[in-house]
Amino acid sequence: MQLKLETLDAHLSQGLRGAYTVHGDEALLAQEAVDAIRAAARALGFSERRVFNVVGGHFDWSAVIAQASAQSLFAEAQIVELRIPGGKPGKDGSEALQRLCEHLGPELLLIVTLPRLDKAQIDSAWFQALEAAGVSLRADPIERRALPAWLARRTKSLGLLLPEGDEGQQALLLLVERVEGNLLAAQQELEKLALLRPGGELDLATVDQAVTDVSRFEAAQLSEALWAGDLARTLRLVDALQAEGEAAVRVHWLLADDVRALRRAAHAQAAGQPLPMAWREARVWGQRVGVLERALPRLTPRALDALVQSASLVDGLCKGLRAEGWPEEPWAALRQWLLAIHDALRPAKAVRLQLHA
N- to C-terminal Cα distance for the chain? Predict the structure, then answer.
């Protein structure tokens, strides 16, 4: 059974399932989910706990099976935790996990933590067995558009107050800029503020003075800003990625993959193919569909053909080649290409405005 993180507390108040699988890249949300499951288990008498870290290709799965099968002298219920940071238990692990799921009982609670999984891993026999035997929870990063609401809830839960009106919104937006992409540090910064100003107001000056810039960025966030047409944020994220030591060639490759996917979808649509099928053929899944779907109506097939060609030029520039009319420095070339993409996103909107005039 799949469950959303925000419904976990309500679920736990009604009792426990035999297995809980928490997967995803957001460390804070994953840790909080596991902590909540453990606390509910302890309240129901699960007093023993054994943790196994599944690292390397020669992990001894027999020890896990033996522990799960062992009965305490006092018949106390136990928690068996499996941490699989690589996300792949291997053939032996797959078989062991399926065996564990078949023999879960009222005195055994299985908690499995994993990183973000791809479609093949989610469709695997071992993951399907875990999901059928209990509950799976995804700990995905909070998107920027949802981050203000998440931070507002967190500040309230810590007894901090945001001012009414524009000042409160400005304080919240500054907080977003300072902690974006780093929820664990965000929680720590809020807890620090709660200690500095218990029950106090979280105004703009307080955030500016007390909250360290702990934001971290990924190319996926740059993709979201770019295809939303937010040029200012796009350029700010480029600056941040460059400052963090990210490789220009990797950032370009990820964005060029977006352009190629959009081009395939645009030509498929022009040929009368349904868009969902076009996305599948372009291997675009999940949240990425939503990001690219918003941009597709604003780009013509011809514009996308030109962007794919310029993407090839920028790829060479990132690898040390030269091209007439383009900067030699990779990040400068990447910025010029992003400006071209931003310009390409505008004509369709301008045409629509003229037609309605």
Answer: 52
